[in-house]
Amino acid sequence: MRNDFEAIRRALRRMPAPEPRPDFVDRALAKATANGNLTRPPAQWRQPFLSWPLWLGAALGAGLTAAIMLVLLRPAAPDVQPQAQFVLTLNEARNIDVIIDSERDLDDATIRIVASGGIVLDGFDNDREIDWHADLKRGNNLLSLPVVARAAGSGQLMAVVEHDGRTRRLTVALKVSETKERRS
């Protein structure tokens, strides 16, 4: 098909073109500049731009477009599971079970545990954050975290799982009381 077009183009180039009349250029310029049409557009083209309904419609359209874009492009909510709350007594050591539910196998995932408030990981009194690499299987993966309540008040234990640029956070709220309270 392209060869056909090329053949037609070559044939047209070989055909002689008639010369324009000697006064062609003068007549074309005179017709184009008659009545001052060269410097400003016709009145029917200018009229809509002076109309307030046009500008009101444009403003409403722009506002609606901006609202739709804000809804469609808002950042995704972080993958955070709801908090569970546990109550510990001061200086009590206890295992807190955290279940990481994975939709697929995660080879060499980074697991980070962050303890805050009056909570520390047993054996890591000076470290508020520890991390390691592990393979997680599809489905439920149980992490049993040994914690110790060192100061009264509230604390938090957060497990962060990172793999292939995705991050998942699981948070457990902990309360440390000086006396025995009802356990959850």
**β-strand amount:** 35-45%
Calculate the mean pLDDT score and round it.
81
Query: Largest beta sheet: what is the strand line-up?
Result: 1-8-7-3-5
Largest sheet entry: 5 strands, mixed
Cα separation of the termini:
79 Å
Q: What structural class results from the helix and strand content? A: alpha+beta
Under the CATH scheme, which class of the largest domain? Mainly Beta
Task: Indicate the percent of residues in helices.
Answer: 25-40%
Q: What overall geometry do the principal axes of the alpha carbons give?
A: elongated
* The CATH fourth-level homologous superfamily of the largest domain: Immunoglobulins
What is the overall number of helices?
4
Domain count: the total is: 2
Q: Return Rg in Å.
A: 38 Å
CATH arch. level architecture of the largest domain? Sandwich
Quaternary status? single chain
Query: What would the CATH topology of the largest domain be?
Result: Immunoglobulin-like
Unreliable stretches: none
How many runs of DSSP E, i.e. beta strands?
8
Query: In sequence order, what are the helices and strands, one letter per element?
Result: HHHHEEEEEEEE
Description:
This protein is an alpha+beta fold and 184 residues long. The chain has 2 domains: 2-72, no CATH class; 84-177, Immunoglobulins (Immunoglobulin-like, Sandwich), CATH 2.60.40.10. It contains 4 helices and 8 strands, in the order H-H-H-H-E-E-E-E-E-E-E-E. It has a 5-stranded mixed beta sheet, with no helix packed on it. The protein has a 3-stranded antiparallel beta sheet with strand order 2-6-4, with no helix packed on it. The mean pLDDT is 81.
